[in-house]
Known about the structure:
The protein is mainly beta. It has one domain: Lipocalin (Beta Barrel), CATH 2.40.128. It is built from four helices and 23 strands. The strands form six sheets. Strands 1-20-19-18-17 form a five-stranded mixed beta sheet. A four-stranded antiparallel beta sheet has the order 2-23-22-21, with no helix packed on it. A four-stranded antiparallel beta sheet has the order 3-4-5-6, with no helix packed on it. A hairpin with a 2-residue loop joins strand 15 and strand 16. Helix 1 packs antiparallel against helix 4. The longest helix is centred in the N-terminal third of the chain and has 17 residues. The protein is globular. The protein binds calcium ion. The site of calcium ion has 9 residues, from strand 3, strand 17 and strand 21.
Amino acid sequence: MALSRWVIPFVLAGSAWSGAAAAAAPLVRPNVLAEFPHDANAFTQGLLHHGGTLYESTGLRGRSSLRRVELATGTVLLDIDLGTSEFGEGLARVDDRLIQLTWQEHVAHVYDLETFEPVTDFAYDTEGWGLCFDGHQLVMTDGSDQLFFRDPDSFEVLRSVSVVDDGVPLEDLNELECVHGLVLANVWKTDTIAVIDPKTGQVLERVDASGLLSQDEQASADVLNGIAHDASTGHLYLTGKLWPKLFEVELELPVTAPATPRKGGSCAMCAMGQGPNDGLVGWLIVLTSIVWRRVSPAGARSRAR
Ligand SMILES: [Ca+2]
């Protein structure tokens, strides 16, 4: 048994990382460190952490907003409404700007980070679901299996990649978080977060985040849909649509090459002093796969988007 805890992660993580063989991504569980209040009326569609504070995009027509939220209390410190015709979606920070997607309105709003004053808008053809910034490029989802990589200044599509797990395209990719050269994506209608190598689209790991809410809390809540990375601790914050709580968790992630930050950008991986040495990456994957727990598949829960 002890041997399998070391060998199985090596085989699975190694093959998934290389893309050389189709294999189901390992399934891991987050370790919950703390929980905080979250506005149970917030239909969370985008979440990020910056400077000790959370920024959140909420959806539903007539209830869509952009918010700055105090982590410890869940208090909304600053917010603006999108109006009744727009449905807020993914949210990313690029330097001193916030970029907020809309679901079917084909427009992304750009705001000043501090004041939420509008800066400009970007137009796009697809639906807007999730958004994150890796320090160099924006990564966007549209509900399909595609990750779209966009220029953060022009919003031009630079490339796209299909996300694949066990040889099968993984659709319904939703809220995103760029973490250490990886892309974490909520899979809509599930409690699963896919950990994706953005270079290949390969799912390296699946995170089973089921069971964070009690049955009573879940009864009035919708699906998991919020991932924010705290670069100062390496922890993640997880919440969901209409969830009464937000959870601080730690998670063992595969290691991959960092994105190259543009001038003035941020790159958490670079801060950790890790470089794009692919030969080293495979062995680092072994080390980061030591914590390995098999769990049951995430239960699927569905409700109107
Ligand atoms: Ca996010």
